[in-house]
Specification:
This protein has no helices and 32 strands. It is mainly β. The strands form seven sheets. It has a five-stranded antiparallel sheet with strand order 1-32-31-30-29, with no helix packed on it. A hairpin with a 5-residue loop joins strand 25 and strand 26.
């Protein structure tokens, strides 16, 4: 199916940290585009919050609280190759909106937004979830004009989870619970909603964050009906196991997938702590883990999700240390380091 791991060690580079300017990066993840530019949300020492981008040398403001429009940035910002970005914000009017910033112009795509955050493709089309308010529960997309319904709770689906991930064809991958019971991952390609995988004889439950690349490979975590769990990929109707609990790992939290089909996953090794891994060896293939030493302290928390990897396999990771410092890290695979 074209899915594999990276050999060798990743590098970890701090590209933003709390201190004089920023007070907090939590609870949101950072995103990264195909140029290695990282976007992140931050709370400011002087109050308020904003969305920012950095190349590792210079931090630039996407949007900040104030100015008569923006109250608080309340999601990760996702950024594409053209520098367009999208995020959720609490407006000063009191409404929560999905905002698109393109060419320096901020557009409200919908004055209703769900949890977590949006995703954007290279054309600047944004996919997002809504839980109630002026738009019903569902998955939607927009590029600045009308809002298109991808899936809602009118018939087939009962609830939606995680992030809707939009690819460069405009297809949207999402995770949902069925009205008739059970769970599934689905692809809306503009013509119909296709099933990627559902619970049943093989899987008892599915992870909340499927990820799909432009080659059509979908990676996901799931629990098996026969016991155990693992990381799996789906491609053209077939499903393959990448790593499962018959190996050195006892549980799996999530998975990332790059443009070449290479996998990074976050999991707990047997007798170990939650970490990020690029292969089957929990020691040699560990990028970082809870309790591991970093910058003169140890890792207390980390966060990432499908917006945190680009096509080249570079990863943006938000990290909190036990001394309370926080960092946005860029992790480069061996061939990009």
């Amino acid at each position: 199916m074209g899915a594999s791991f990276y050999p060798g060690s990743y590098s970890l580079s701090p590209i933003a940290e709390t201190g004089e300017r920023f007070s907090d990066f939590a609870p949101y993840v950072a995103s990264i585009n195909n140029d290695g530019i990282v976007a992140f949300q931050a709370s400011l020492q002087e109050g308020g919050s904003g969305a920012y981008v950095t190349d590792g040398a210079t931090i630039t403001v996407i949007a900040e609280s104030g100015g008569g429009l923006l109250g608080e940035v309340c999601s990760h910002p996702d950024i594409n190759h053209n520098g367009s970005s999208c995020f959720y914000a609490e407006l000063e009017s009191g409404r929560r909106a999905v905002l698109l910033v393109r060419g320096g112009v901020t557009t409200s795509l919908a004055e209703s937004a769900g949890p977590l955050g949006p995703t954007a493709n290279e054309a600047g089309t944004v996919a997002f979830r809504v839980d109630g308010s002026t738009v019903g529960h569902g998955v939607y997309c927009s590029s600045g004009g009308s809002v298109t319904t991808i899936a809602d709770c009118a018939a087939r689906f009962r609830r939606f989870h995680g992030l809707p991930v939009i690819d460069d064809t405009g297809s949207v991958t999402f995770r949902a619970d069925l009205a008739t019971g059970g769970e599934g991952m689905y692809l809306a390609d503009g013509e119909r909603v296709r099933t990627i995988v559902e619970t049943g004889d093989t899987f008892s439950s599915l992870g909340l964050f499927p990820i799909r690349n432009n080659a059509g490979i979908v990676a996901f975590c799931a629990s098996l009906r026969a016991g155990g769990s693992g990381v799996f990929v789906a491609y053209e109707g077939e499903i393959a196991t990448i790593v499962d609990t018959s190996s050195s790992f006892e549980s799996f939290r999530g998975v990332l997938l790059d443009g070449a089909g290479r996998i990074v996953f976050y999991a707990t090794p047997r007798g170990g702590t939650l970490g990020v891994f690029s292969g089957h060896d929990p020691i040699a293939d560990c990028l970082l883990s809870l309790g591991s030493p970093l910058f003169g302290s140890t890792v207390a928390e980390f966060a990432l999700n499908p917006v945190s990897i680009n096509d080249a396999g570079q990863i943006a990771i938000r990290v909190t240390l036990t001394d309370r410092r926080q960092f946005i890290l860029r992790s480069d695979p061996p061939e990009a380091a």
